[in-house]
Amino acid sequence: MRIEGYGRVDRDVSLDFSFDGRRFAGHPGDTLASALMAEGVVLTGRSFKYHRPRGVLTDTSAEPNALVTVGRGAGRDPNTRATVQELYNGLEARSQNRWPTLSLDLWAVNDLAAPFLGAGFYYKTFMWPRAFWEKLYEPIIRRAAGLGALSGEADGERYEKAYAFCDLLVIGAGPAGLMAARVAAEAGAQVILCTEEPRFGGRLLAEAEEVDGQPGHLWVAGVLARLRGMDNVRLMPRTTVTGAYDGGTYGALERVSHHVADPQGAPRECFWRIVAQRAVLAAGALERPVAFGDNDRPGVMLASALRGYLHRYGAAPGRQVAVFTNNDDGHRTARDLARAGLNVVALVDSRHDAESLAGEVPFFPGWQVCGTQGRRRLSGITLRAPDGRRDVLQVEALGVSGGYNPSLHLTCHMGARPVWRDDIAAFVPPAAHVPGLTVAGSANGAFTTYGCLTEGAEAGAEAVRVLGFRAEVADNIPQANNTPNRLRRLWAVPGRGRAWLDFQNDVTVKDVRQAAAENYASVEHMKRYTTQGMATDQGKSSNVSALAILADATGRDIPETGTTTFRPPYSPIAIAAMGAGGQGAGFAPERFTTSHEASLRRAAPMVEAGLWYRPSYFPVKGERHWRPACDREVRMVRDRVGVCDVSTLGKIDLQGRDVGRFLDCVYANTFSTLKPGRTRYGLMLREDGFVMDDGTTARLAELHWLMTTTTAAAGQVMRHLDWVKQAYAQGWDVRFISVTEQWAQFAVAGPQARDLLNDVLDAPIDNLGFPYMANGAVSIGGTRARLFRISFSGEHAYEVAVPSRYGAALWDLLVARAEALGGGPYGMEALNVLRIEKGHITHAEIHGRTTAHDIGMGRMIAAKDCIGRTMAGRPGLVNDREELVGLRPLAGGTLTAGAHLFAPEADPVRENDHGYTTSACFSPTLGEERALGFLLNGHRRHGETVRLVDHLRGIDTLCEVTAPCAFDPTGGRLRD
Amino acid sequence: MRLTCPLCGARDRREFTYQGDAIMLTRPSNDDPTAFSDWLHLRDNPAGRTRDLWYHEAGCCAWLVVERDTVTHAVHSVALVEGEDAD
Ligand SMILES: [Zn+2]
């Protein structure tokens, strides 16, 4: 129902919405919870385990009960707290965890079985037999217990992530947060003010209370107007700071468009990383209930929430209401509800010596509420007098207050534990917690408005003073209520009936006591045994009460019993928000070569090589499969000429007088003796003696060198060179930089490679002037280029490099000339076959566990100090190694990479393993399958027979062991 | 977590690559395999102050020695491996 004259919703405008298909109306400014309440809907959901009817408990984000699914289709949003969801026109919400309907929920039979479903039920019942767990228990439990469900479809909703930096981050915008932000902003600091609510003002918007001689919400409006006028202030409504991390970093979730019908392209949520020099936590405090029999009946709410719905929304769950409290704050609720014209039938205060602060309201000091009546909503409460006498009152709503817990969660995100303050019966932040963060107001245990204003101002001023700003506080504090809230602790009312603590996970006082009785006496054990505090609300309304009851049951005091650990996030965050931008093409960057477009025009399928995209093969008419294309391309290179884009290899430009010396250090073999105009193969080791990478390095001029790395290890090699230079070669005259992106480089390979090049070069080359492993500057159509006579294919071959802007043009030119000679482009499949035929290694072979010795290059390690030399000499790295060999089938059969090698007569089991294969292909040149692999002592087993077994693919082939190089072993084709 | 690179200023830890103990800076001068093996493989695991190596890979590519506390997460100093006075 709506209360006339109350609330700050816009009653001139009506918004239509639906809940479980029924149509309702509310107003701008409503939440889904307040609009349902105004429409008389009290039952909003079913509980997790027992399917008990539940209604709204709070008016905050800590709501454990009123979880609904908003929207439909792929982007539907389960487990939305109705207390947070702002109303918009056309909003569709559905209740959860009920079947078939909310009012008739057949799973409610669980509630009848409750005596068997208590604490530890899962542990005790479903341990055995194992098969029953997977096939029977778990599916049933998953069906019966649970929260909302995702659609199972890809979520097309947009999410964003963003970064912000500031001098001061203020978390919470009640009286403390507003003062902190104002003082800091007036001092000139860059301030970010976040509130998880849609409006700034915090509790001042939910109370009838004066600040500075005017209604609280008007004082808020004044401060906000001032903050809005300052360009050093950023106001972030609907933004929950969810975690505190090292270095002044805070995670925050902004709900950007959950509150509008049409987001108009705006993201649904944005996950912020805010870096703040200092931060003030002014997140307020959360009221906690008192547990008593059947205290979960819809209509039983927190007293502050009842008051909040009245002042904020002009909404109440019924006309007949009562309040049950152990502190003075509950009296305010009774007073305000009575003033609003509701029939407050009882103010029940468990303190026998309490005096009523609620005027004419019937007052029951020393009494307790010990039970409730009603089916799907509250219809009455049972009171118990100090002498045991009972009375039953008809009510539609009951406000309960057990005191307040400061919202100190963020202070514990980096390992600190809160400390117990007996005078307010609550945990407060410890002295030292998150560096750079101070706590002010109710979050710090200051429960009066004046206390909040004062602490906020001081915290804001202190924070920015540390940063060098001049901040004034002294006579700036507005007048406000400063009456402390008196309280006498009461956690649970003794008596019959189930007294609920954790509403979201259905944990009762009895469950906690039972855990203690079974010696789950530590908080962490109790929590896991009962599941208290482990639901999506993380026990915000139940942790302290459960702890107090555990303390009582185990005969300890509360500080001795401890507290559970608070971890980020403070409230649930969609994974999609944290991973924003990482879906689809945003998952990883894509690197394209300059020939990419031309390759696509030829319908070349692309294969990923790290972030690069490289063509697998270039199909011609009639080729519907990769193999014919690959075979053709291999023959083309062996017989005529082929062109291949090799720009993805890492290229590092090195200059300086000490480059030779530096390369001697990072390569296992010697480079200082290399002459300008010459190129050399180099093997790079890790410090532990294993192979890191290989490639060629060309000496372009006396002081100018160019290193190439494999595509896969380009980043690792650059990092390694930086390390060796900065750590071990300080003061050497060496400078280097990656030029991978700056140069397009193409291999031209085959017997007609030189013919093709002389077709395009401005000045022709010959074998004498440009022998194998030569390099030099050339020009093509007047453009300066670099030419290297190096070969990965084993053919007479060159690599020609031009600045990237000429790459596409040169590719087209080379391919056209190659085709005129009967050749053409070749892709990764052919490149791979060509190198396997030659026994050349790639990272399939140098995979991090192979040594120079293993790949037959042990003798390359020069007698000089270089990275990896000492460790490569360890006996375990040279004796009884699995060594690189070639393999060919003895009498047909298939060879695969990843197969294992065994002696022919041995059982193919792990104990008899003699090695494995790393690469395999059909060699069109040799007319048979070929493989490379590592075989135990393989260097001296050429000619032997081994058995290749691929257990995964069911392949078993007898092979002859050969040298890795199966084609042109003397290398004559390279030099012609 | 944030580190203040001496060349680039305070940056998010995502810009850096972690390597390990700064003992890697003091490479044995001889080729005694035992000394090398110990240097390469034996590591303390202190609860408290450590000196370890970070690489500002998404920044200036400087290798850094970071002195920090594994218990409090405090970062005490960040210095260039190469020394600020290197040319
Ligand atoms: Zn840097």
Automatic annotation (TrEMBL), chain A:
All residue ranges annotated as the SoxA A3 domain in the record: 497-581
Keywords: Oxidoreductase
MF terms (GO), sorted A to Z: sarcosine oxidase activity
Domain of life assignment: Bacteria
Span of domain GCVT N-terminal: 596-863
GO biological process: tetrahydrofolate metabolic process
Similarity comment text for this entry: Belongs to the GcvT family.
UniProt cross-references to PANTHER family, sorted A to Z: AMINOMETHYLTRANSFERASE, AMINOMETHYLTRANSFERASE, MITOCHONDRIAL
Name of the protein described by the UniProt record: Sarcosine oxidase subunit alpha family protein
UniProtKB/TrEMBL annotation, chain B:
Organism expressing this protein natively: Sagittula salina
Organism taxonomic ancestry: Bacteria, Pseudomonadati, Pseudomonadota, Alphaproteobacteria, Rhodobacterales
Domain of life of the native organism: Bacteria
Any GO BP: tetrahydrofolate metabolic process
Pfam families linked to this entry: SoxD
GO molecular function, one term: sarcosine oxidase activity
Protein's name in the database: Sarcosine oxidase subunit delta
